[in-house]
Amino acid sequence: WDRNERLFQEDDDDDDDSCSDYGSRDKSGTILGRIVPDRNVLFPDTFQTNHLLFYERFKAYQDYILADCKASEVKEFTAEYLEKVLEPSGWQAIWRTNVFEVLVEVVDVEYSTLKAVVRLSEPFLCDSHVSTFTLECMQELLELKKHQLPVQELWVVFDESGEFDQTALAIEHVRFFYQHIWRSWDEEDEDDFDYFVRCVEPRLRLHYDILEDRVPSGLIADYHNLLSQCEVLYRKFVNLRSGISSSDSDSEAENVSMVEGLKLYDEIEHLKQKLKLIENPLLRYVFGYQKHTGLQAKGSRPMGTKITHVVSSTIMASLLQSLLREKLCPETCDEELEIQFHSDPLTAVSACYEGDTVIICPGHYVVDGMFCIADSIELEGYGLPDDVVIEKRGKGDNFVDCTGANIRLSSLKLVQHDAVEGILSVHHGKTTLENCVLQCETTGVTVRTSAELLMKNSDLYGAKGAGVEIYPGSTCTLLDNGIHHCKEGILIKDFLDEHYDSPKITMVNNVIHNNEGYGVVLVKPTVSSDVKDIAAKNSEDLGNTQTIQSNGETENVEDLGHPELHECAMDELELHERAEISEQTEGNCEIANELVATSVKKSQMHKKRLSELGITEADDNIMSQEMFVSIVGNQFKRNGKGSFGTFLF
């Protein structure tokens, strides 16, 4: 963003106060491009304004249009901006709707309503999908609208003089804002002076992240679906509220409507929170999203047979003899083994049914697609991992998606380039990763809710996000691995909510080193004061100390509640700095302590909610939460911020 900063600096030093995106409008000639109509119509060219860069839109909204206005003042601030830069008359535009396009001439602007007063241009030019829009029909339509049209429905006709550049840009900013930034419910949200920071900037960043392929396609679909749902529910809520407010009766029907309105309100708030998680760039990275692959498992073959698939670019006699001796003719095999040969690992995996095995011979395989493994199969490299390399080329969401009940990958090297999501995602079932090398570019391995990962004797490096992401409700066992040169080593996500079980984590003898941030990061919400009060009140019942096994010795976990920083402005995650402990091994105890403390807080929240419903539980055993199984013998070396940290949201 150096370019962005330089632009702002240059404008700060400029004495011109013309509210211009491109400097003074005294310059001769336009600096904007033109769009030539792609159909055989006589429409004139229009200004090219829809390809503005992120920083150009950011600057316009922050510096010239919205500044520090409230959500309720957006229209007023926008009107003031238009009054400064919009030519009040003398320019032509194309009025575009979903049904027709017609050339009009602007004779005045009603700034307060963000509308332009127009008349039909001469000669009459209209392009429509239907033939009913004659000159008379269009004149009648304009009269019904009192000749006033929203400025965002107008595309300014191209003019080489430069006189109407600012008019075209101003209308583009208004159009983009109401298409991509503004939400119907914004005015009713917290009406404070941070509307730009709270809503405009994150939505603008999301829009450009989507344009630049930095957001998974599934998450984009989820976002648009949530937006549509929220819009529908909000319209129903507004209509219901209007009906109640216009009624003076205190009837049973009105009471039912009020209950329905409260239910709608809760649903809308729930959807809005989901939207905010996706809109916020940092939350979007930390939480990811619950993607559910649509791939269905094939199950067993109709005849019940299992096939061994051999992948090799070329089959030499010596290689075949070795395979037959070591892999294809085991002494314990009582029945004939069916073998299929492939030159591409992706084709081999696609041909698999439940129980099949894929043996990949030494070689460098380049694949353009994604591995979607929905059946319990085994992928085994025949040789050392560095000899069996599978490299992904081309942009895509994931590299390897696992949903099978029991999948095993061994002795492979996976190399990922230019992806949106991680190198391997376990969505359902159990995946075992043994003796593998993973060269990542985005996130490394992701263990989703209800999924299980066993990763041992493997090497993972290069992730721009976390090397391993562990979601709530998952089971993750990491044994004797190297996780290094990532942004963060391991990211543990705990939503501290009764709807999400704690992840079950085993970390033994891993070497987590040379990561940019922390070796291990725990993501959790701040805890409300009432929950902390209950935790303190019940601390005698729970006991202030528990013993855990760390580095082969019994350690006391004193003070299960840790001091926390509660600075959560603008819904951003704040980094909670931990006191530096020994970089080498003492991080094991610190991680275990924090996971126990989080389990206690979750337990207290759950008990509080149950008690409000008149339900009590007898289980006060902290360790029954099983947040972790064992955290022993891990080494933390040269991580940029230390062995362990906490993100609070």
UniProtKB/TrEMBL annotation:
Keyword set, alphabetical order: Acetylation, Cytoplasm, Cytoskeleton, Phosphoprotein, Repeat
GO biological process assignments: fibroblast growth factor receptor signaling pathway
SHC SH2 domain residues: 56-284
Residue ranges of the region described as Disordered: 1-23
Gene3D superfamilies: Single-stranded right-handed beta-helix, Pectin lyase-like
One of the record's GO cellular component terms: midbody
Stored InterPro entries: Beta_helix (IPR039448), PbH1 (IPR006626), Pectin_lyas_fold (IPR012334), Pectin_lyase_fold/virulence (IPR011050), SHCBP-like_N (IPR057508), SHCBP1-like (IPR045140)
Acidic residues composition bias: residue spans: 10-19
Residues covered by the Right handed beta helix domain: 421-522
SUPFAM superfamilies with a match to the protein in the record: Pectin lyase-like
Keyword Repeat on entry: yes
Localization, UniProt: Cytoplasm, Cytoskeleton, Spindle; Midbody
Principal location: cytoplasm
Entry function: May play a role in signaling pathways governing cellular proliferation, cell growth and differentiation. May be a component of a novel signaling pathway downstream of Shc. Acts as a positive regulator of FGF signaling in neural progenitor cells.
Assembly with partners or alone: Interacts directly with isoform p52shc of SHC1 via its SH2 domain. Interacts with TRIM71; leading to enhanced SHCBP1 protein stability. Interacts with both members of the centralspindlin complex, KIF23 and RACGAP1.
Name of the protein: SHC SH2 domain-binding protein 1
Organism listed in the record: Gopherus evgoodei (Goodes thornscrub tortoise)
